[in-house]
Amino acid sequence: xxILRTLTLRGPNYWSIKRHKLIQLRLDLExxxxxxxxxxxxxxxxxxxxxxxxxxHQCSKKYRGGFLERxxxxxxxxxxxxxxxxxxxxxxxxxxxxxxxxxxxxxxVYNVVFEYVYEEAGRYAGRAAVRICNSIVEKGYYPPEELAxxxxxxxxxxxxxxxxxxxxxxxxxxxxxxIPWMLLSARSLVQLGYGAYQKRIQATLSSYSNIxxxxxxxxxxxxKTILAEAGIPVPKGIVINYLDELEEAIEDxxxxxxxxxPLDGNHGRGITVDVQxxxxxxxxxxxxxxxxxxxxxxxxxxxxxxxxxxxxxxxKLVAVAxxxxxxxxxxxxxxxxxxxxxxxxxxxxGEGHDNVLTKITVDDTVLKVLARQGYTLQTRLKEGEIAYxxxxxxxxxxxxAIDRTDEIHPENVWMAERIAKLIGLDIAGxxxxxxxxxxxxxxxxxxxxxxxxxxxxxxxxxxxxxxPRNVAAPVLDMLFPPGTPSRxxxxxxxxxxxxxxxxxxxxxxxxxxxxxxxxxxxxxIYIGSHLVEKGDNTGPVSAGVILRxxxxxxxxxxxxxxxxxxxxxxxxxCDVGVVLNVSADHxxxxxxxxxxxxxxxxxxxxxxxxxDGYAVLNADDPLVSQMAKNVKGKxxxxxxxxxxxxxxxxxxxNGIAAVYENGYVSICEGQWTLRIERVENIPLTxxxxxxxxxxxxxxxxxxxxxxxxxxxxxxRGVRTFRPSAEQTPGxxxxxxxxxxxxxxxxxxxxxxxxxxxxxxxxxxxDRVGVIGGPGDRRDEDLRQLGVISARLFDYIxxxxxDDTRGRERGEVADIIVDGILSENPHQDYIVVLDExxxxxxxxxxxxxGGLVVVFPESVSRAIKIVKKYQAAD
Length: 873
Hints:
The protein is α/β, with parallel strands linked by helices. Helix content is 36%, strand content 22%. The strands form eight sheets. The chain has an eleven-stranded mixed beta sheet with strand order 25-24-23-26-22-27-28-29-30-31-32, sandwiched between helices. The longest helix is centred in the N-terminal third of the chain and has 21 residues, at 119-139. It is elongated and about 105 Å long. The two termini are 64 Å apart. The mean pLDDT is 94.
């Protein structure tokens, strides 16, 4: 059994619209293809022994133990791999549950699909699941030590990929509010929202964080100066840069005890508190100097009292936590070392910021703090006796947090909110030492120790004691006040043929609104009138470029089959989802073997429409119109036939539709008809001679109308959009030469040829076809290209693509010729494999007043050749 391919899906996809994060393994069972688990000796017993927790999997039985019952009765190994991959992630602390296993058309080859939380961990789980099953089949067991290593590796991958606790709190709140988010590629930045409405965070720094305020907060002495001048109680302190200044500085602040810390430090790094002796002071200076970028050290008077963090967001105090240094409490018989070990066994404690609490690490600082209390690691504490392990109360060194939000005195609330404004921070963590936070600082001798930019949220969202506070909510309220949008309109367009033209026309119509439109096509990524990147850009990566751009106000995204299958959609939902048509193209690729399966791929766009959005569906295509039953939003139809029964019933129910009627492109709403324009005045339709282009126009007009674009703007859009080589390269580009006309169209499948044929049939004069097809298409599809061409053209030149896509040179041409002759044994044709030569041959062969139709591999090359002839004329 081996993995043939691994895909990572990140958005709505073929397997699920709701479950975006899926791993898809293409798994070859090889010799085990026809061997169910009940015929593999000892498989059930070995699987239960290594992973007894699989008993919790219900599977299709819908009860505990259901999956293992399936294994005992007999199921195929692809199904087992799915469940093992899920369980490995569960055991490593990543809750998942969704899975699917389906056999492909290749015997013994399965698509195994399962949910993940973190990509790398999900992919690892898939590989490990196959490894476990293979080992059980071959050896009868899987070594426990290898399973332990697998789980350790998965936990490491989880830790490396996980968001920090503060970022995670904000992201979860964003998800709860339906605000989309994405990780950016630099500096741990997270984007909230799309396009022009986006905001960014980096931990708890936000788009509103003032660089001057952040710099001031990092300057501990500068912050104290500002606060002292404003009448805020702060400890006396002196900045020094050399060790020989230390003794005098301690005297100037009032003598021992003192606090020594880096001038520009954070997260408690390099801080030593309650320094009592010159020896301790010198060691503390070295520690602080090493932690400071500037080598500057701050010496402050040490104030006894409880350490508190006051969190202010957008000018309002939202949470207060008392921070208690790492400590252990005696039980009357355990040593301090044993108590630390027991404390670290708390499941709430993890490495770094991975969990609610951090494990306590024994180092020189711990030993010194214990020694100051008269303890060693071997001391046995009396029951209830407390031994502190750190002088500072940071959670990152094993401390705990106690919520005190409801206890703070109103005057201290006012002071904290004033401090945040004095420093200029949108999100501020204010550290206060006071004996009693329920009394005004000045009454009890409390002081403000420092003000922190980017304060951690962990102590507030998950305190060790007290009420958790949703401190992410006020952050989201600040970034996206009630009524403020976080999403730009997304119009997603898919189908077998016409996607690029429809995308470009739709974008052109929306540009009439005066807003900045970003769109992706097979030609490139565009923002406004500017080309951002040339090439085929119809996948989720390209869509991400648009959704990340802060200038884009409307996104129009072409969504091709390949991107949907490889990664899913780039967005969680869209406002308008357009499905133009479904026909036989790319069948046999990506395990999509039937036109019904292809329809399911295209339906992903329709099913991703939001509840208040519109799916725009082709009522003339049964595979498309049937998608309406799974659409969660509203449906609007378009049709070339105003009497289409689907259209008539839809309008009877006061629905919206676009139809071609009496020579007009019209919008119908209930019993009302709004005529947009006669097709002869719409350049894209070639004076109405290209019916499939009329259908594309209908879809574009409807996609704009349902989003409230004014009819006059739609009318202007369709009138001014021209099918030129510059505007829509390779889409019905008609060139007039001196003796003939040349039509260039990128059609490359039977449905595309038929659509162009509707125009060709109306041509009065000689008709020459320069035809070919991609080598990765099925033989029957290539043969059909020949059949259709024999019906359309007086003379045919068969060429091949430069890239034969795995076929022998001349093989594709032979299959197409076979189709030509099956339709018309007397058809006049010639084979010219080189595309450039074939185009030139066609232009030289056509009679005066005739039409040469070119279906090129390279649109740009074909256009260049034709323009050369135009220039010569």
